[in-house]
Amino acid sequence: MNAERAGELDLSIFQISGMERAGCLARWREIFGRSPPKYLSPQFMRRVLIWEVQTRILGGLSAKTERRIKQIASGKAPPARAKPGSHLVREWNGRTWQVEVVDGGYVMDGKTWRSLSAIARHITGAHWSGPRFFGVN
After folding, report:
1. CA separation for the pair 37, 32 (Å, rounded)
2. CA-based angle 50:28:16, to the nearest 5?
3. Of 11, 12, 38, 60, which one is least surrounded by beta carbons within 10 A?
4. Average pLDDT along the chain
């Protein structure tokens, strides 16, 4: 990015970050060509406006990422899988539980488990979907 575009981005972000509600509404109409949905907070509008300015100046998401987002939004995406080396974290009843994904299973507190559901059952004392408990589906 050249210095002129960097300055343009800095100026736009600076201007938007200081806007009150009326300014956000006007800028939203200018950028998107319509009014924002009702009841959006100025803070949320500022974030969306800044994101839009950044993507217009720096470029948006890749085509691959756009396709994946559309798959997820339509419900047609295959479930996410945790890959070996990933760490899953879940807080339950005031304690933080950490699980490492390894080939063929999971490691928690030095013990190897065959499934996330078994770990979730161990933690909660009740039957849970392990992937749902750890937020990986």
Report:
1. 12
2. 40
3. 38
4. 89
Class of residue 121 by CB neighbours under 10 A (exposed 0-12, middle 13-18, buried 19+): middle
- Sheet of 111-113, strand order: 87-92, 95-102, 105-108, 111-113
pLDDT digits (tens, 9 = 90+) for 19-68: 999 999 999 999 999 999 989 999 999 999 999 988 888 888 999 999 98
Q: Cβ atoms within 10 A of the Cβ of 46, count?
A: 22
pTM recorded for the entire structure: 0.49
Q: DSSP 3-state assignment of 98?
A: strand
Tokens of 113: 């488990």
The span from the CA of 129 to the CA of 25, in Å, is: 44
CB atoms within 10 A of CB 78: 7
